[in-house]
């Protein structure tokens, strides 16, 4: 991609462009974008707005960005807080940057477009319903009987609601995964305790599939492959902790309700 012509700019103009680049990268990072995409879009935005070059360093919980103009080099550091995976935010930021590259937005209008991007979130009851249905479908694919599928639907749906409710109250994700795994395993264990199904093994195995941290694992591996070892290792470690928390909730439920050694 050829660089746009670099027009003379003042230090306040370059400072504003630097802020726009780092805020865009930070928004992408907070909502689950991979490191290569964060770096690429931040650099493209700066070049499209007229700076000479943009350098980005993506850390595990921070973003460092430097812009080079005609006479000034400006560096800024921003700390990143996890705000949950949301592909709607990532897509909208990408669209706004494409409009800047096409010349439709200047710095002021791009800032307005960036501030207008808000996470799109579905109602908790709808997410719980869909999660319960998906886990029940996995159980059916594993040849569970109808009773087991219904039990998985109930267990996964209620556990997902508990997870979303705890997240709404700003509990640690480790605690939400632990509690959700406990609730799902406890409810699915009814199939064994009350002999409601002939396939309790499948019900217990599939009711917690929604707790698999697939997105952090995929991003972690992608970052490692593309050379972002620092943040890649951090994401893989976080996915491992989430998995360990889920396993802890499963083990606690199986111990409390004596679900060991099911037929």
Comma- or semicolon-separated keywords:
11 helices; mainly alpha; 3-stranded antiparallel beta sheet; 263 residues; 2 domains
Overview of the structural elements:
The chain is mainly alpha-helical. It folds into 2 domains: 11-116; 124-256, no CATH class. The chain contains 11 helices and 3 strands. Strands 1-2-3 form a 3-stranded antiparallel beta sheet, with helices on one face. A hairpin with a 4-residue loop joins strand 2 (62-68) and strand 3 (73-79). Helix 1 (11-30) packs antiparallel against helix 2 (35-49), helix 2 runs parallel beside helix 3 and helix 7 (173-188) runs parallel beside helix 11 (229-256). The model is unreliable at 1-5 (pLDDT under 50).
Per DSSP, the total helix count is 11
Query: Class by helix and strand content?
Result: mainly alpha
Low-confidence stretches: 1-5
- The averaged pLDDT comes out at 92
Order of helices and strands: HHEEEHHHHHHHHH
Note the main sheet. Answer: 3 strands, antiparallel
Number of domains: 2
> Span between N and C termini?
62 Å
What oligomeric arrangement do these chains adopt?
single chain
Shape: elongated
Beta-strand segment tally: 3
Task: Round the Cα radius of gyration to an integer and report it.
Answer: 23 Å
Strand order of the largest sheet: 1-2-3
Strand content: 5-15%
Helix percent band? 55-70%
